[in-house]
Write a structure and sequence with these properties.
The complex is a heterodimer of chains A (about 100) and B (about 280). Helix content of chain A is about 0%, strand content about 55%. In chain A, the strands form two sheets. In chain A, strands 1, 2, 5 and 8 form a four-stranded mixed sheet that branches. In chain A, strands 4-3-6-7 form a four-stranded antiparallel sheet, with no helix packed on it. The relative contact order of chain A is 0.29. By secondary structure, chain A is an all-beta fold. With about 280 residues, chain B is α/β, with parallel strands linked by helices. Chain B has two domains: about 140 residues, Rhodanese-like domain (Oxidized Rhodanese, domain 1, 3-Layer(aba) Sandwich), CATH 3.40.250; about 120 residues, Rhodanese-like domain (Oxidized Rhodanese, domain 1, 3-Layer(aba) Sandwich). In chain B, the strands form two sheets. A five-stranded parallel sheet of chain B has the order 1-5-4-2-3. In chain B, strand 6, helix 9 and strand 7 form a beta-alpha-beta unit. The chains are: A mainly beta (about 100), B alpha/beta (about 280). Chains A and B meet through strand 3, strand 4, strand 5 and strand 6 of A and helix 7 of B.
Chain lengths: ~100, ~280
Amino acid sequence: MSLDGCGAPQQGVDIQVGANEVVLTGKVRSEGAPVGGAFVRLLDASGEFTAEVVSSADGDFRFFAAPGQWTIRALHRSGNGQASVNADGPGVHPVEVAVA
Amino acid sequence: MSREDVLVSAAWSEENLTTPGVVFVEVDEDTTAYDGGHIPGAVKIDWKNELQDPVRRDFVDREGFEKLLSAKGIANDDTVILYGGNNNWFAAYAYWYFKLYGHDTVKLLDGGRKKWELDGRPLDKEQVERPATEYKAQEQNLAIRAFRDEVVDAIGNKNLVDVRSPDEFSGKLLAPAHLPQEQAQRAGHIPSAINVPWSKAANEDGTFKSNEELAEIYGEAGFDGSRKTIAYCRIGERSSHTWFALHELLGHEDVKNYDGSWTEYGSLVGVPVELGSGKEG
């Protein structure tokens, strides 16, 4: 993974999570099936845009955030959807987003 | 300058895919997106391997830019339409390069790949070959590029527009939230900078907001239209997006992009750094 770049890295690849990192991760699904190529947006507690990635072929996405309340919003040509996640501290916080 | 001189819609683009003298160019940091399907007829430019100097932290020089565009089959009188992923960050960066090296007619595809894909417009995997040209570039137009000393001198007297996310601005994060955070330089922002995240200039589908909306957003954040302006982010690509909004869409005359951005400034010895939201004092 490139660290001097700023583009979104490939999603769905195993990573080492640092002890203090807050990771929000999960899948985008439509009627239960994973949706690849969705634009997944991380919004903070005030609804402000924070980051965006494209879901992997298996629907995976991942953000490195800070503790707090987050909304994850997915856009796809088949539909949009969103989900909330409360990250109370460091670690991996799973979240699923359904688009329709 | 009107919006039509610098931006084209996805609909216009789809109608002009084979128009002679119009060249579509996809620009990305990770070119696997292009390889997996691109706008029919578009050539690709790899932001990292083709636009950056492989050794020094700088761009390809004038000669390198000429060589690159000649090999891509882009002529001086072509209308170049740039697009890419990440809400056109790298396409906006490339747009700024094309302007830096004096290309006449270059435009951004409004919304980039995202809008194109959300619209369900065609992508293909055809190999694109264009006959080589003899492209001639100008000397860099430094009226749109800021260097570090100029940025330090601008504290308190020019608009310094920090376009990173609020958490990067305040010093809580060192990189955008889709990247790991293990970096060594200091966190925070340049004193007197206002924080207007690049994303404020874009709609959810990646298209730019209207000029009226843009003027309101920057005005509310404390942007002073009578002052000169320097925009920065972490490595200079998100600030190219904002440079485009301020200089090309809103028509502010003296706007520079500081491509060294926070990865340079936050590692300089002895320069002032401010933490927090910056609005208290």
